[in-house]
Amino acid sequence: MQTKAVYVCSCVSVCVLPLADCPLVEMRLCRLVRQQYSPDHLRAATTTLLHVRRITHNLHMTHIPVKQREMSQKKIFLVVVAISTVSLLLHHGGHLSWTMEAFYLGCPALRAHPAQSLKPKHTNVAFLKTHKTASSTMQNLLFRFAERNNLTVALPVQACGHQFCYPHSFTSHFVHPHTLPPNIITNHMRFNRAELQRLMPNNTIYITILREPGSMFESLFSYYNQNCQSFRRVPNGSLEAFLDEPWHYYRPSEKDSMYARNTLAFDLGGDKDRPATDVQYARAFLAEVEQAFSLVMIAEYFDESLVLLRHLLSWDLDDILYVKLNMRSQSSKRSLTPGLPAKIRAWNSLDARLYDHFNASLWRQLAALGPACVAREVRLLRRAQERLMRSCFEGRMPLLRSAAQIKNKDLRPWQPSAKVDIVGYDLPVNLSRGFLSHAQELCLKLIMPEVQYTRVLLRSQSLRYRRGYQLRAPQQAHNLQQPIRTVLPRHPQVQRSQPPPAGPGPASKTPTTTKPAAETQGRTIKLEPKSSQTQAS
Ligand SMILES: Nc1ncnc2c1ncn2[C@@H]1O[C@H](COP(=O)(O)OS(=O)(=O)O)[C@@H](OP(=O)(O)O)[C@H]1O
C-alpha cells in the first residue's frame, strides 16, 4: 500500500509539469498503482520513470533558457532519484533485491522492449516431455501456471494412463474430451507434429528439453532396469556389460526398447535405430526438430533455459519458480567410469547429435540475451526459489525423503522398481486436501509428483467441463461433430493486470466453447496392456 502511495506521488509530481506527454505518463504510472504490486511492475515503474526523465529532459532542452536548464534538469533528476529510492526502501525482502537489480538492468532484450513486462503472457504452450530430462519439474511448473491462469491442460484419456498412450505416436484421440480445447499440453507422448497442430491453437509455442546423453542413459538404465527387457538381460544389471555388447541385449522391435537406445530421438518422433552412418537422416531430423520447437531446453542448464523461456513467453519471474522433482536418491545413482560416456554417445549417436546441436544453440541464445543479464536473472530466480521453499517448509529448506518416509500419499513419487529410489518431499504438517489455505495449496502443488497432479487436474477440469456443459445452450449440441480444434473463441492471453484466480482448486470459469468432439468421448482405445513403468514413468 505504501508503495502504491509513492507511485501516486510520482504521478502527481510528474504531472505538475505542463508536459504534453503528461496524460500518457500519468496513465502508465496510475495503471501501475491500480495493479497489484509485483517485481515486474516495479521494473516497469523504473522504466517509466526513466522514460519520464527523458521526456522532461527533451522538453526542457527545447523550451527553457539555457541558464535555468541546468538547474531544472538537476531538480528533475533529483526528484526521480528520490522517488525511486523511497519506493525501493518501502519495499523489503526479495522484491527489494529484484528491484535493485532492475535498476541497473543491462539486459539488451529488456532494454529493446521497455514495455515487455506489460506484454500479455503467452499461454498456449506445447511442451514435449522427454524421458529422464527434468521434464517432470517442467511439467509441474506448467501445470501450476495453467491453474493460476485458469487455462486448460490437455490430459490423457483414462485408457492411456497419465501419458498420451506412449509409446504410440500422439493422436488427438488420446486427449480426454473434458480437457478440450487446450492451452497447454505437457504429459509424456511420442511427438507427432501434425496431430498436435490439429489440436492446439495456431499460436502455440513448442518447447522441449534434452539432457546430456551420458547422465541421461545412466538414469534410464537405472530407472527402467527391471522393466525394459534389453536392460533386464544384462548380468548383474551392469551398465558396463550392456555397453560392451549392446546388440547382445537389445532387440529393436521389442516392447519398451525405446528406453534402451536414442530415447530422445524416439520421443521426438524420430527413428531410434537409424545407423550412426546415416548422416543425411540425422541432419534432416535435426532440421525438423529445429523447425518445430521455438525453444529446446537443456537439463544441465535448467535455470538458464528457464530464463530463455521466460523471455520467449513474456512470463514473470514468479511463473518459473520450481522445485526439483523425480530425482533418484544418491544411492541409486552411479558415476560413470572413464570411457563409458563415449560408449553411451556411440550407442545413442542420434541423441548425442541432438544434444550437441541444441546445447550449442541454447548458448547462442543466451549470448544474444547477454551473459550478465542471464546470470542476474538466474541469481534472482534462485533467490526467489529459496524464499518460496522456506515459506512452504517452515523457514527451512526441504529434506529429500524416500517414498516410504512421505506421509502424504499425494506427495509420494512413483517408484519404478525396488531397485531404485525416487525421492520427494513432504509438507511439514500432513495437510488434508479440501481444508487448505491458498498458500498451503500452492506448496502442495509445487511438490506434487506427476501422476497425482495429472489426476487432480483431470478431476478439476472435468468438474469445470461439467459445470460449463450444464450451462451451455442445448442448441449448441449440434457442434459436437466439429473437429477437435474448434474455431470458437479461445482462452484469451493472460493480461498482467488480471487479478489472480480467487483461490485454488477447480477453476470457476466456464468454457465458452461448445462440447468438444464427440468421437473422443467414451471412445475405447484398444492398446496392448502397458507395463507399469510405461504408465508411470
Ligand atoms: N531442475 C532440474 N535440473 C536438472 N535435473 C533435474 C531437475 N529436476 C529434475 N531433474 C532430474 O531429471 C531426472 C528426472 O527426469 P524426468 O522427470 O524427465 O523423468 S521421467 O521421464 O518423467 O520419469 C532425474 O534425474 P536422475 O536423478 O539422474 O534420474 C532428476 O534428478
TrEMBL record:
Transmembrane annotation, as ranges: 76-98
UniProt keyword annotations, A-Z: Glycoprotein, Golgi apparatus, Membrane, Signal-anchor, Transferase, Transmembrane, Transmembrane helix
UniProt keyword annotation of DNA damage present: no
GO MF term list: galactosylceramide sulfotransferase activity
Record's protein name: Galactose-3-O-sulfotransferase 3
InterPro entries in the cross-refs: Gal-3-0_sulfotransfrase, P-loop_NTPase
Membrane protein topology class: Single-pass type II membrane protein
Protein family membership: Belongs to the galactose-3-O-sulfotransferase family.
Chief location of this protein within or outside the cell: Golgi
Domain of life: Eukaryota
Any one cellular-component term (Gene Ontology): Golgi membrane
Swiss-Prot/TrEMBL GO biological process terms: glycolipid biosynthetic process
SUPFAM superfamilies: P-loop containing nucleoside triphosphate hydrolases (SSF52540)
One matching Pfam family: Gal-3-0_sulfotr
Bias (Low complexity): 505-518
Location(s), subcellular: Golgi apparatus membrane
